[in-house]
Design a protein that fits this description.
Blueprint lengths: L6 E8 L5 E9 L2 H9 L6 E6 L2 E6 L9 E2 L3
Antiparallel strand pairs: 1-2, 1-3, 3-4, 4-5
Length: 73
């Protein structure tokens, strides 16, 4: 039985000025899992989820925006 390929993503921590100050590597089975894990990282700073050069999603702080803005597939 063949295991599904894992996808390597990066969750970038963005400061209030829009600068990246941290990066967390996420290895997930699919984009939905990667979105859930990245959304859980939104504590103090905005998070952008990327795979290679493609932004998968952006997660804002609840105080800045009341919903997450997902960016195309």
């Amino acid at each position: 039985m063949m295991m599904p390929a894992m996808k390597h993503n990066r969750a970038f921590q963005i400061d209030p000025d829009g600068h990246v100050f941290g990066c967390i590597n996420l290895v997930c089975g699919d984009d939905d899992q990667a979105r859930r894990e990245a959304a859980a990282l939104v504590l103090v700073h905005r998070i952008e989820l990327w795979r290679l050069d493609k932004r998968i999603a952006q997660f804002e702080l609840a105080s800045e925006i009341t919903h997450q803005a997902a960016v195309g597939h």
